[in-house]
Amino acid sequence: MQKKCSNNLLILFAKAPLPGQVKTRMQPPLSAQQAVTLYWAMGRDLVAQLSGSGQYDFCVYYSPAEAREAVARWLGKGLAFYPQSSGNLGERMATAFGETLQRYRRVVIIGCDLPTLTAQTVQQAFAALDEADVVLGPTEDGGYYLIGLKQVQPVLFQNIDWSTDAVFKQTLARARQAGLKVSLLPCERDLDTFADLEAFWVRCQKKAAASNHFPEGHVTKIIRELLGKPAAKPTP
Fold this sequence. Notes:
Elements: E1 8-15, H1 32-50, E2 57-63, H2 68-75, E3 80-83, H3 89-100, E4 106-110, H4 119-128, E5 134-138, E6 144-149, H5 167-177, E7 182-184, H6 194-211, H7 218-227
Parallel strand pairs: 1-2, 1-4, 2-3, 5-7
Antiparallel strand pairs: 4-6, 5-6
Helix pairs in contact: 1-7
């Protein structure tokens, strides 16, 4: 485990960017290689936005276990990297919480599917754990983009229909049945499908029109190429 600098730890759950293994719900219309390129960009933007805040430690739990060097080249060797355990997503997250809550007071896990997630939102999640037992960031498709705990809560990861639109609802129900206090972050639309990708681009255009500034990053650059869109021209 990395040298501990804070009481808070942010974990990025990431897959190695390999064809046929990432963003499969976007294929087609994207090719397997285009999906890899997009996923690569999403991870790079997240690391750029979330690392170096000084308010929390940051590490990556990756899969498959033999992909450490590939993931480190992708996300930057300055981070700490640990292989995910075996099992379904819930079992892997439960193991990660179990390993890290032995050393940290608060632990938050995110994935790569919300490349616009900010350090401010992550800090909001850690702050919520001062009062709450669980913090969740729901997504419009029924999942969640963030989960935070200050004690291991195995019940939150058992008998969940992972990769379905029932994940958030079932997790919230398990928490309430266990008498846990839950804090909710704003609902977001993550990038799982091609429709999500198109909607993300529309939001970028609206943001550009409202602020006279287009949100640049690896993801917006790749989407311009994938969708064949020209660079935005904000309204004067």
